[in-house]
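Supplementary notes (optional reading)

For those who missed the lab, this is the record we used. Protein: Replication protein A subunit. Length: 449 residues.
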Amino acid sequence: MEFGTKTAETSIVKQETSVPPSKEVAKTVNTLSTENEDFELKGKVVTKGDIKHWNNSRGTGKLFNATIVDSNGDEIQATFFNEAVDTFYQLVSENKVYNFSKGRVKLANRRYSSCDYQLTFDKNASIVEVFDDGHIEENYKFSKICTLKNKVGEVVDLCAVVVGVGPVVEFTSRKSVQLKKRTLTVVDDSNTEIELTLWNNQAENKRVDVGSVIIAKNLKVTDFQTCSLSTIRDSSKLVVNNTQIPEATVLLNWYKKIHGKEPSVKLTQKTDLSEKLPRVSLSELQERFKGKEEGQELLVISGFIGFIKKDDVSSIWYTACKNSEVCKKKVVLGADGLYTCSKCNETSSECSYCYMASIKIQDFSGSFWVRSFDNTAHKIVGYTASYLQKLHNTDEQEFDKVMNSLPGKSIEAVVKVSVYGGRTQATLQSVLEPSTQKTLELYLKDLNK
Ligand SMILES: [Zn+2]
């Protein structure tokens, strides 16, 4: 009997030591931590991003991001990986409420998030839609525009009136990704204006007019040369003219009655890069690098097209990846009759064409050879390289006509001049709208030397 009791006691003690100190299941964003991955979070999905695929040295995969807000109005970013994309992408919808569990809690990248943590979900995740009792509301923490100068690098919410809407601008990033952006100018009742850049889908499809009240969640305060705001991919949310948000109504009243009586303070200074660069004549350009072994400089030049090298067409364009909208990698026709892009890892019977032309530019003082790649040459020629290539094959006369129309055409451009080991190479960076006045000033300056 005694013996038996003792055994029972020992076994109880044993059990106690093997049970970890009990932790409560986290039910809200503010109780989540990386120490405690046991959570059961009830939250509303406020933004859901597109599926993204990656392909790098560590392998391939896919993901999508969502922003979840809980009953306290606190927000957290969730990322779904691979099988979780297959299982949950269709299920998870914006403005619906779910119980999220069986994921991991990680430290968030504060560059893209206003929360310390983020959630990740894989195939083990449990996400169950629950009844929306209307208790989960998005929580905005609006920043006045006049305070943004002190918040560079932070993520903020904004309630502002649109006073300017720019055009959708398409361009290619340094990583050869085709991007679209639209810049809005917005003002709030601190009577301060700032530029807000919308990207891609939001740039193209978000309908905003002058006088609209824009309510934005998760904007990045940037300071690239000048203070401005930018949307963050998959995270920013924009609502236009939502009268249910009291701040929006107050602001609209301010805009109608007060705005315009005093000039606004402008946080974003318009900067045109080419305005800041040295403007040189072509003879000055020659002189600048004479005798130099190494160096690099961005300069603005203006003149006219003297000559385009066209010994054979391969000196005008090259065969490029068929996805030349996003990838301008050179491809070579293999023995199998197929083109392989080593960057996209794709093989195709088709290719496209991209410019790589040598152009002699002339002005009143001299001439200079520059290289011109797809973006700049397209602007100079007026046609894509693929179109011109087709023309060359089908209608040589018309092709010659296009090529012969180019000499004499005026050009103003930003050019990057590099010198390595005494050899100079110049590449057109961007083609500007010609400004006759400035060319004239330069000409007069040259005369007075
Ligand atoms: Zn490619």
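If you only remember one thing from this example: The chain has a mean pLDDT of 84.
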